[in-house]
Amino acid sequence: MATTANISKKRKFIREGVFHAELNEFFTRELAEDGYSGLEIRVTPQRTEIIIMATKTQAVLGEKGRRIRELTSVIQKRFGYAENSIELFAQKVVSRGLCAIAQAESLRYKLMGGLPVRRACYGVLRFIMDSGAQGCEIVVSGKLRGQRAKAMKFIDGLMIHSGDPVNDYVQFAVRHVLLRQGVLGIKVKIMLPHDPKEGKGVKKPLPDHIQIVQPKDETAITQPYSESKDKKIEQFPAQIGHPQQMQQQQIPPQQQGQLQPGAPGNLVFQ
After folding, report:
1. Residue 157 has what DSSP assignment?
2. Smallest Cα–Cα separation from 167: which of 139, 200, 204?
3. Which of 57, 76, 173, 251 can pair with 104 through a Cys bridge, CB separation 3.0 to 4.6 Å?
4. CATH of residue 80
5. CB 206 within 8 Å of CB 165
6. pTM over 0.90
């Protein structure tokens, strides 16, 4: 992963996918008790940054940053990175109830502690819905009671199963619990809420979401009334001249003697 040789885009995508999958598997085993819920890889020209998302960031960092340095050293040796070319960060999960991986791990530890399946699942389901999720689905399969294996499904709220919005709105996690009677499988699906600010949910709305714009509030007319339009009419006489103003115009004295009343072709002024 650390080599910069010219390779095709196909091999580059495969290499990045294998790198992400191996890191995710390593952190899942190593940081399971610390609420590990995913990672993000940022590649810059100077270095590669790996952001570990967990519910207990202080446990990931360790005392005085000792544990995060140990993880950095292991990854650096495994993938052949140069010194100081890779760095790990820990980021706290915004809402633990909306993280499928964190809730699957929580349910796993409850079952390992001997809590009944139905009680443990209903507790996790209630916590997820109280955190603001649109819907949740929990499936526990295996030898729940007796020697016959079966599956129990717990559903609440809304859940979509097909279409492109599943990639944005639905979080999915699978965990396994090794008990005395056998292995139990845990599947947790959480449908995230729509949040335009993208704080706890998804910024992009669902395709079938219709927003109705409310009309503006108008004053109710209780009694009939009339409006005067005189102000608009009075503007025109001042521009073109009013007939009364034309009659009040004075005739210069030198022109009064030249005009003869009643003569053809002359104007009569009153």
Report:
1. E
2. 204
3. 173
4. 3.30.300.20
5. yes
6. no
